[in-house]
Amino acid sequence: MMRTSMHKWSSRVMVSVVVGVVAGALGSPCAHAGEIKIGYVNVEKIFQDYNHTKAVKADLEKRAKQKDGEYDARVTELKKLKGDMELLNDQAREAKQREYDQKTDDLQRFKANATRELSREQQKVTGAILSEIEQRITEYAKANGFALVLNSRALIYAQDVYDISDEVLKALNTPRTAKGEVR
Fold it and tell me: I need a labelling partner for 161 at 20 to 30 A (CA). Which of 19, 37, 121, 131 fits?
């Protein structure tokens, strides 16, 4: 929590410094030769509304449901085994109890491994998607003559007119050819 707070604070300080430098440049005689184009993006909004994100999320949810189904089947098997144990004599019940204990341990390991596996996969794809978004923001900024594009999370205030999130999202959701050209 403290680290996140410090990160937000340091990001805002950095943005303030950058904006101050840009504002200073705007006031200088050299800056008036050409207008400096500045924009900002809401990366969270772009991430949530990006078609690739939605597809990956649906795939992860499908895999999670499959794992839940496997888990439920194992729980049902354990319940049946527990019910069968009640009908056995003491010696046979002891053998079944060891089997039950082993299957219970296996079930707990299965759940932990499934959760860990899905979490790792989610982190991996989230990182890849965010990198792709950053790359496309950079491409969009360069193609459209932006000198500076900021993340809205680091801003305290900005006018909506400088928000280019929708344009970047449109570019992201536009299919590209294998060479990276827009179709």
Answer: 131
Q: How far apart are CA 71 and CA 87, in angstroms?
A: 25
Nearest to 41 by CA among 129, 159, 153, 144: 153
**75/156 Cα distance (integer angstroms):** 51
Quick one: fold of 37-173? Protein Binding, DinI Protein; Chain A (3.30.910)
**Rounded Cα distance, 166 and 37, in Å:** 17
CA–CA distance, 46 with 63 (Å, rounded to integer): 24
Whether the CA torsion 58, 63, 69, 75 is positive or negative: it is negative
Q: What is the pTM of this model?
A: 0.70
List Cβ<8 Å contacts ≥24 apart for 70-75: 70/110, 70/114, 71/107, 71/110, 71/111, 71/114, 74/103, 74/106, 74/107, 74/110, 75/107
Structure confidence by residue, pLDDT tens digits, 122-146: 999 999 999 999 999 999 999 999 9
